[in-house]
Amino acid sequence: MSAINKGIRKVEISVKWDPSPAGQPPTDLDIVAATYLSSDPYGDPAYVVHFDSRSPDGTIYLNRDSKDGKGFGWDEVMTAELDRLDSRYARVMVGVVIQQRPAQRTFVSVIKPALRIREGYTVLAEDDFGGVLGSTATTVAEFVRQESGTWDFRPGIHGFEDDPETFTATMGRTRRP
Fold this sequence. Notes:
By secondary structure, the chain is mostly beta strands. It has one helix spanning 164-170, and strands at 10-18, 29-37, 47-49, 60-64, 76-81, 89-98, 111-119, 122-127, 137-145, 151-160.
């Protein structure tokens, strides 16, 4: 990476899906982000940001939260201001989890799901979760701080069959350098 490359600075992670058919329980997808300390980049998350929280310093936050996919456009939107994240953090993992109430669900039962990750107007990744149809959750992005302090983006959809709590505790152990 050259000295003039700014790396990834501020990203927007967006998810959308169509509502459940009439008479069926609503489908609820949630974007989650976990931060990892430089001292333990593949250990336990320092903190997790999800539908009812934000990062302690306000650098990772949910802009939009849908419980049923009935919104216009993107139903869930999370922003991560990586360039403002404290230097003690080395990684940020982002995932999408399906709420399992009132029914057990996997991505095969979600109608027209879509993912978009972008920085400004530049689309970094798009996906339809077709590779993780039997999963209840998936990682969708990894952001890694380089020695220069800039952030790199590593795309990747990696499915899990865990409940939301287990997923957020283990999602950062999926990728190694």
